[in-house]
User: Fold these one by one.
Assistant:
Number 1:
Amino acid sequence: MISVLHRFFSTYTDRSALTKLFGFFSSGNDRPINPDSNYVDAQFRYHRRNVILVITLCYGLGYVCRLAFNVVKKPLMDAGVFTPEEVGMIGSTLLYGYALGKFTNGFLADHANVGRFFAAGILLSAMANLGMGFSHLAWLSALLWGINGWFQGFGAPSSVVSLASWYTNSERGRYYGIWSTAHSIGEGLTYLGIAWLIAAAPKGLGLSWEWGLWAPAMICVFAAFLLYRYLPDRPRTLGLPTIANWKGEHGQVDNAHQDESIWKTQLRVLAIPSIWILALASSSMYVTRYAINSWGNVYLQEIRGFDLFDANLFIFFNTVAGILGCLVYGLVSDKFFSARRPPANLIFGLLEIIPLFVIFYGPPNTTVLGIALVVYGFGLSGILASLGGLFAIDIAPKKVAGAAMGFIGIFSYLGAGMQDYISGKLIYSSEIIFAFPAKEQHFNIYFYNYDKPILFWVGASVLSIVLASSLWKIKAAD
Amino acid sequence: MAYKQAGIFLVLTSFLYGCGDNIENSFCNAHKDVHQTHALDVSHVDIEYQASGSLTTTVQVPLTAIDLVSLEDTSRVLVVEAEKTCQLVSVNIDKQGQYWQAAYHIDCGQDNRLRKVSIALLDKFPTINEVEANIQTPAAHKHFVLNRQCDSPIFNF
């Protein structure tokens, strides 16, 4: 796509600024393969090590710019800058932007120099975070955060294109698993690191809420630099053979649809009923996932009485458990159920829903709450790895796995976006203000009731597990 | 090169530390630890709001800070805003040692949405500098101190 636009503007606008821009982001031309096999081997070893390190680290660092707003929600509400409804609305714009970004940038990333493309996305995301720290206007913050969502959508497609370019079919799953832990790394950094910056002393530095957005911006600028410097373009643009040729490992092509165009196969995916059911199941699970991510720390402070640092520490533990959940899900479904996802989905679904009941309706005991959050994080990450991607790739023809994932992704993030808005509205509708006006300043203490949002969050998980279980007999496609 | 990177890191770190509003908050941060030593001398507000719509506000203020007539005038002490009108059920005022203790019982009804309760102690009575408040609703409980010198409520003291 970028190459086509590049050619178009080269032809009709005589090297305009736009042409130069597209040229900058386009993947380079293929170069003759270097005949020195030692050089080729050394280059592959060097770049393959860099790629997995850089995409994992930088996707994790970039994630901080996606989640920072969640940490500053409570301080923003306490300071009276935004109401919960406004906070919910702002939060949801990122998810809509991300849903769109994941889809559109997926097409663009296939044609891009991913190092530059990914770096630009993260740099622009940093700028959006910087701007958010200066904004006290709900509409401006919503706009900036929505644009940030689109910029955040540069990361996943670029990472997947890199994984496809530098690792073979047989090893991609393993590397995909390593890269997937970046989500948890980013969440941990946000809910511990950024929370530490703005939590009150002595547990934190006690910086104002603005720093909860400016510090992630600095982190993302650093990540953008690393990506620009260390994430390479495709092997062929560097004078190296393709990864399949270098390893001598070629994938099997589905003969039944070999001649069908990718566009037609993509359309055929949209007619598979199980893909729609899976999209709804994933969307419902994303409601719970983002509800806990977005409102979990606010709930723990408002209702359970924890301070900002402790509340985010709980979310951090939950996130760390998620790293293990991702890895164990793949192992369990592959080894114990012969790569059948539905049984593993049910087990991990129960590991997600039971702790959720304990968290919201269980005894008010800190240890019980901590354990429940850890088990919840473990179960959720496992089932999300399946519903949000792995199961879709199983069901869909492999040559359009990207389209299947994009379709599931759009549904998932629309669900997540709607969740933030609905949760914010439900929480705001229960607001009671206890005001203590004074000559010097007005103290407003806000009280919210989470009964209705909790029903919404738990109900979404139950629906998701029921939908996923209805696909019990679905078999993987070739 | 390494020195240069370390220098940049130091500048950024000190920038982060330096921009906190620690100076103006030093009294308020310190007050968390010392509040208990004078807790008995400050005014107290206890509010209990029940799911049935019953709102009980108990105010305890030093005799020197406020006169009986002011406490008897409910509108000078608290204002309740709800979807529908709330009814003042009773006001009981006692003298307890060096304090006035006034209990205001208001009934808002079960199907009424309580929006805002304003407690005017700091606004109407300039001699009151600090209030310790305890508020219980069906969903949450909050315990905090309000001091005129602080920008925000002090929790976890």
Number 2:
Amino acid sequence: MKTHRRTILKGLGGFTLALPFLEGLRSGGTARAGEPLIEPFAIFLRQANGCASEQDTEIGAEPERFWPSQQGEITPETLAGRALDELVDHHQRLLAVGVNAENFDYGDGHARGAFQGLTAIGPVVAGAGGDAEANGESIDHRIGRELNPDGRDSLFLYAGRNTGWLGGACISYRGPGNRRAPLHDPMTAYQTMMGVDGEAISEQLIQRRKSVNDLVREQMDALLASPRLSGADVQRLELHRSAIRDLEDTLACNLTADQEAMLEGQAANFDSDDGDQVLAAVRAHMDVAVLAVACGYTRSVAIQLGNGNDGTTRFSDPDTGELMENYHYISHRRLSHDSSGDIIPNADILHHKIDRHFAKAFKYLLDRLQEYQLPSGTLLDSGLAVWINDQSQGPSHSSRNLPYIIAGSANGYFKQGMYVKTEDDSTHCRLLNMIGTAVGLRSADGGDLDDFGDPGLPKNPIPELLA
Amino acid sequence: MLQRHVRVGMLVLGLAASTGCYGGIHDFGKGDGGDAGEDAGEDAGEDAGDDDAGDDGLGPVDELPAPTTRFFRLSHTQWESTVQDLLGLPEPTGLSSEFRADPNVGGFIFDNNALSLEVDGALWSGYQRAAVAVAEMVAADPALVAAVAPDAADEATRAREFVTNFGMRAFRRPLTDAEIATYVALFDDGQTLYEDTTGFEAGVRLVLEGMLQSPHFLYRVEDSEDVVGDVIPLDSYEVASRLSYFLWNSMPDDALFTAAAADELRDGEAVRTHALRLLESPRAQAVVERFHHQLLQVDKLTGVAPSPAFYPDAPANLGALATEELVRFLQYTVFEQDGSWGDLLTSTETFVNAELATLYGVPGTFGTELTRVDLDPAERRGIFTQIGFLAANSTSAYPDPIHRGVFLAKHIACQTIAAPPDNIPPIPAPDETQTNREAIEALTEVAGSECVACHKTLINPFGYPFESYDATGAFRTMDNDKPVDPTSTAVLPDGPVPVTNALELADALAADSGVHACYAQHWLEFAMARPHADVDQALTDRLATSSLDDLSVKELLVELAVSRPFLTRSPEEM
């Protein structure tokens, strides 16, 4: 049995993680005695339907309610009154970027936004609309595949109804047309990460697991040895074989019993239309994500809230406590089935309120990451939290000026405390390559990542974003 | 109305006429494809009399299997039913609720696309935890231990027989000598590897953990490789698994295993006997229901919420009631009446309680339970004039001819309709001088617009006949104080058909060879767990011909199960 040196990190809020240093999980480098090593990571939070920013719609002009009041340095004053002011406590660690994505022919604006959001690539079949699939790997999966121990899958977490437009979970891809399944229940995500179902780790347990795993691996190897297998079958069997985990790879860092009970309570209604319940599940997913990156389980987590057009989630109006109309209808400013069939009154303000819900959820993530003090800063400083949106605005489905709100610098890669609205085309693909570089992906020659996304798009860094 | 904008992918306004929005209708019934009543074998080139079945008992030789995976991972539902049957449990364990859900696949209606059923780290973890939990449960129950490992002359013999016999059922084929030796060794190891279980039970426990995580349990593995003619015949164990997972969604029963052991399942007639037997079970009813649940998008019924302002008397649980009605209708029509797809499309029978009876306008006194009734044949005909389809494809205030039309065109007539362009304008607020139909026409059928090509010809005509039913599915003749106009000319696969209402449209669907081909195609996809391929067309056409001639749904499933594509593999790998 491998030796574990344990370091306890006490979070400022009393949220304690026992953070082991497991030799088996290091990726390259040599150990520094007594020091836990946090490799750069990225946690993505995805929102659908754009934000309530300045725009002209067919029912009138709407003022700016999302972005800071001016580009450049972010201050409490530039954030005041905007949805991003929910993040004022973290304003010095924010990098708010408006990026421009592509007009790929997905046949539907929601498909175009959701499928290229983490892939920067077009469809497998053009114009397929609701039947579309992305034609490439997503950055969260790429990070996991290249940087996680043994190429372990990155975590893909989902909250809300996992049905409906675009088939529910739709932002994370293993490869062309190969959409990943998410972990829907945060408790299942936690158990998946732990690898041990509440059992004490004994020599007998280790031996049982090893005996079974070794036997299953032999059987998989025998199946894979057949020369007649198709490439697709080989790929699926290899994925399965690589998924088998021995107990030596099991995380010894875990939540306390009370924390697990709290997680279970938050996670209870992950499959809901009620926005408050869905947001609670998102926070539970975020707790799992923080644990996962802190413990070295994964370098990448993607959290998706709502389906392809988030047409089932109904968020609450914080001013009235009532559930609003579903988010998708609000984003289009119109309602098809009330007694008038008319526009939703003040739909732009309701959209702004939904933006604030997401901002608060993002703040929860940042608060959790900030709680952990490392010698070089906080856990947040070691990585990136990225709040992304499929579209810039709801009525137009536009792919220009997409809000990508980054927090954390990944150990000094990204500029902090700034708002940058990019004007060039294809800055979305360039930003995804920068995120990959920041987390640790490299090109074939060891330089910055420069091969992610559609082959025809530029990949060079955006200088204004670099620290 | 907003719905057309917000569900833009389904709205399918289509491309400009010059690029076309329409394609993919199989030219069934035209040319040499095999019109109704013609021999299926006219193109076979074999001297086989009325059909070209060849002499291997596997059906027409021109019906060839498409390349497919050799590893069909159990779906989560199949995992539950298989574990239940393997252990003889009275009910499923429920452990699959902790498995991560499988992803949806764009363009495939059903949830069993074999190539998308993978085992990633998250699912492996679920399987591992579930195997440990099942093994622990069995080992702690003397009755279960006795059931999986009956007494023998001595413990060594008992262990070996347990591994051999339980293993055969778990892997759905006899274990090799090497596998038996491996699991017997695992049994021996297990006897000292548990703190809370010792002896024989501990050995059983570890073997169960091992077998339930084996790829031979988690996948239906098809190993056969000997090419005979144009195909690779499956062995009897592989056929037994294909058959039971198709018709019961679970592992083979003892009778199938016995037949497989005697190698009796290489012949179509033997398979037919077992298929008919399996169809007599309630398990087959659940499979038929699951197929139609997905084909007819029954999940949409959970979102049915008629506006209280428009429909103050609509039941709050309309979606649930309509779902139950559909389930009863399917069971009755398919299994009690031996009904066909044509019967499902045109039947005037259904099941109602008091609330549904009110909506349907059925006279009489009804309680809370659903009972069979005859609907007014002047108002209702078939599954698409039932409340479920109508209410699910409506807003909470108005019927939705576009979504009703798209659904019928794409999923019932198998027409390919392109996605609409981006940034289509939202639907304007209703004009009180217009009927719903007039509002849709004004928006989508303007001459020279990019909408008219698809909407006027292909989409809207499938939806307008259902303007005779409001958003709750109740029959109506007036809309905004103007007469409802349910006439249209629907472009069916066999050609345009003018209809005066939904009743005639139902009859037209039931009489169209392409509609029957579409239904057969969907069943083939469901049975084979893969998309329809060009090579499937011969079988689909034959099934469609028979279905058009009133072949029952049950018989259609039997014909699938005894077909060459079902009983063999392609020599070409995926």
